[in-house]
Write a structure and sequence with these properties.
Helix content: 55-70%
Order of helices and strands: HHHHHHHHHHHHHHH
Structural class: mainly alpha
Radius of gyration: 29 Å
Number of helices: 15
Shape: extended
Length: 400
């Protein structure tokens, strides 16, 4: 008999985050539908956990699901011991069983909605009774008792559409194709773990620590790698929790590519490097060898470099505004062509050809009109004591 045992939301969320690191490291090419299903489960677990934290802080009851949560179908597929051993029809049968056992059906969700609506009607009736009879205190008591049920039916934080979701009542079922993706990710994970992580071998001159100075250097290298890991974790935490104007601008406008799903290639490289550093340091013994100290420096440097590359990429990409790749390319080519056009060393013959190229690129600008680019460039030209672009484009090459 298949059993879906209840666990505390903190344990389920910890397992969810651990599996996500492994997914990013071993199977970064999940579809958008799979990422949405995965993020929805994490969001539901966080809602249940935050509900319990708020209830504990005010001394009231938490939602019943906070103490009785079950993992969702995506996490079930990625933690089921039989999934890596099955294939074909047997795998599909197992996946369907996991989906049905770890998700809530429509009738159950409708029943839970009925409970919530009934609670709201009951509260309204108590309020009317209290108003008519003068019995003060019935409504606050009812709200206190019904808070867990009301909290169970809430819109998710963020996301598109803000549709109502059963964050605390149960998990929505996932498609079989999405479950197959997670199963394939699980199998790829097992293959990658069998091969081992690709940490380069240490140079031959490194041997086990034979004297106190060498042992001290090894411990310093490990400590430096741990500092790097702490700094990277702190930088990420500040990035996602900073609510100052600068922090919100960085999160939503300057570097949204750092958290967008599915992640881009530079972000994937950083996530993989961070996972590699974390896993390596967790496996370092209390008496590390010189080779392990050297490897700690290698993986730490790789993680720091990848973090810088990911941030540079995110700043370069910024927020997507609907422009096509052709339009983005034109917007990036225009400043180079215009800089060459207004350069005093450009000949009249070159200026004629550059004028044609500039006009071709400006014709590609549809989302942001070309006149805005021209106005910005004219301001820059005035600052550089150059002739404005539009008159220069309209003038014949010989007049330059």
């Amino acid at each position: 008999m298949f059993v879906n045992p209840p666990v505390h939301p903190s344990e389920a969320l910890r397992e969810h985050d651990r599996i996500e690191r492994e997914l990013i490291h071993h199977a970064p090419r999940l579809s958008e539908a799979a990422w949405k299903a995965w993020e929805a489960e994490g969001r539901q677990l966080r809602v249940a956990l935050s509900d319990e934290a708020r209830a504990s802080g005010r001394g009231g009851p938490a939602s019943w699901i906070s103490h009785n949560v079950r993992i969702g179908p995506a996490l079930a597929v990625l933690t089921d011991p039989l999934v890596p051993t099955l294939s074909g029809d047997a795998l599909d049968e197992r996946l369907q069983l996991l989906i049905s056992a770890h998700s809530t059906g429509r009738l159950q969700r409708a029943g839970a909605a009925g409970v919530v609506i009934t609670g709201a009607i009951t509260t309204a009736g108590l309020y009317l009774t209290e108003t008519a009879s003068g019995m003060v205190g019935l409504t606050p008591l009812a709200l206190w008792a019904l808070a867990p049920l009301v909290n169970a039916y809430r819109p998710p934080v963020g996301g598109r559409g803000r549709r109502l979701e059963w964050s605390a009542v149960g998990f929505r079922p996932i498609d079989l194709d999405v479950a197959r993706e997670f199963a394939a990710a699980r199998q790829q994970q097992g293959t990658a773990e069998a091969r081992g992580r690709a940490v380069p071998a240490a140079p031959t001159q490194h041997h086990a620590a034979a004297d106190p100075d060498e042992a001290s250097d090894t411990h310093e290298a490990i400590a430096a790698a741990l500092t790097v890991l702490d700094d990277l974790d702190r930088a990420w935490l500040e990035f996602i929790t900073d609510t100052s104007p600068d922090g919100l601008r960085a999160f939503y406008f300057d570097m949204p590519a750092l958290w967008a799903k599915p992640p881009a290639e530079p972000v994937l490289h950083y996530q993989a490097a961070l996972y590699e550093l974390r896993e390596f340091l967790e496996g370092v013994p209390s008496a590390p060898s010189a080779d392990e100290g050297w490897r700690a420096g290698v993986v730490a440097e790789r993680a720091v470099t990848a973090w810088g590359a990911a941030r540079s990429y995110a700043v370069q990409v910024g927020v997507g505004d609907g422009r096509s790749p052709k339009e983005l390319s034109a917007a990036r080519q225009l400043p180079k062509l215009i800089a060459q056009f207004v350069d005093a060393g450009t000949t009249a013959a070159q200026a004629g050809r550059l004028k044609v190229l500039i006009e071709e690129q400006m014709a590609q600008l549809t989302t942001r009109p070309a006149t805005e680019h021209v106005a910005a460039i004219n301001v820059l030209g005035g600052e550089l004591h150059r002739v404005p672009l539009q008159p220069a484009l309209e003038a014949p090459p010989a007049a330059r």
